[in-house]
Amino acid sequence: MPDHEDPLDLLRELRDVGVAPPRSQVLQARVSSAIAEEIEREQHPREGGLPGSSPGRSTAERSRSAHRRRGFARLAGALVPVVGVVVVVLVVAVFFGLRGSGPSKTAPSHGSVPPSHGSVELVYLAQPSAQTPVVTRSALERTVDVIRERLRSLGIGDADVSGSGTNQITVALTNVRNTAEAEREVGTTAQLLFYDWEANVLTPNGKTVASQLKAQDPNAIEISQGSGSLSPGSPGAGSMGLYQAVRLASKQPYSASPANWRIGSQYWLFGAPGSAACAAAARDRGTVPASGQHCLLSGPDDNLSDLKAGLPRGVSASQGQTLTIQRGTIVLQAIPASFADPTPIGDPSAQFYVLKDDVALRSSDITNPQQSSDPNTGEPDVTFGFNSRGRTEFQSVTAAVARRGDQVSAVGQTLNQHFAVALDDQLITIPFIDFKQYPDGINGDNGADLAGSFTITSAQNLANELRLGAVPVNLRLICVGAPSTSACRSARAR
Asked: Do the domain assignments include residue 11?
């Protein structure tokens, strides 16, 4: 087993490299607690699972789940009846609690070089989002509150977070040992998104999977049903490399809707296989160019100036190919083999899917997320309810998925259909709905139960993040530097 796929090894590594600020006793305690929990799991593995294994459940565990608390739905690979309601299992492993520990997707493109530790100032530009078309003072204040609470939940309680002007937020951190970790937590959107999978995911010809199932298109069948032992949404189950995915997405027409997650265009810049630009980018990043593949030079960004500013040293924009994805289409990374160590988007092995950006539910549709425990197994989990819109939309999307499954299935061939759950631009799970069991969809009145290979710490982190909610605006980092540097003063003066 690779080192990083073992949660225990990952937690030990995080502890050894100093993921917690030196004065953050809360975060230190959380990491220590998580390590202790994983050691306990390693020494006393539960039935049907081994430490560091896939977060699936054994047959015995599935049968015991029939005696779980009443009233919750559970997201699983399949949606099945449990005590008269649906139980749905969201396999998140330790992804939510530790997702900030992985490599950042893009480096800061403005301001001075960020210090590795000590005091640091982050300056963000608040930009419109699909939910907040105009950045208002109240939206800015809400964003400040969310950022402040996120940092407090990390044990960084002495951060100074403030809004300035009409669209800027400044975060001043002192005595921070891991600046990159704090930066990722501050700037992340943390939006939980639900999509009707087959109705939105595209095959290489640019058509939706749903529109090609009756014709038995092989690409559509593979993306819908998986391939061999690979479940839908996995790398290799009809997925494609980053350049192929972005190129396909760039060919899709503009399509604005209130259901979009992303507004505005998104820009990417790639180098050609074997090009001098790819060689220079690899040298700058300390990697080796992948033979025969396009390399990511910069992006994604929401404007061309940032795209150019993010280029590796010694590379100009004219040396690469710029691709633009218009509003209405998104690229989501395939479900990672290891949630604790997801593949960076620029890695040649990373895999992706292209979807129409038609969100059915999002973080704002859930209520009262809480860290809890499975009463039968004792495993940590997260429970939440749906608000009135969430209940209606959950019923609606699952009903549409179930009806389509009935329509595209034939004698001797059952093609159950799916909905996808993503966190920002990362696919998490794609459970299917048994249309024979649920021809009219699933009632969302009883809420849902998110479970997987949680530790208490990662379940608490997820519950806190969902409770705080996604930030209402998009955040663009315009400066990272020591406090009061001239670069950050200039950024704040814009």
From this structure: no
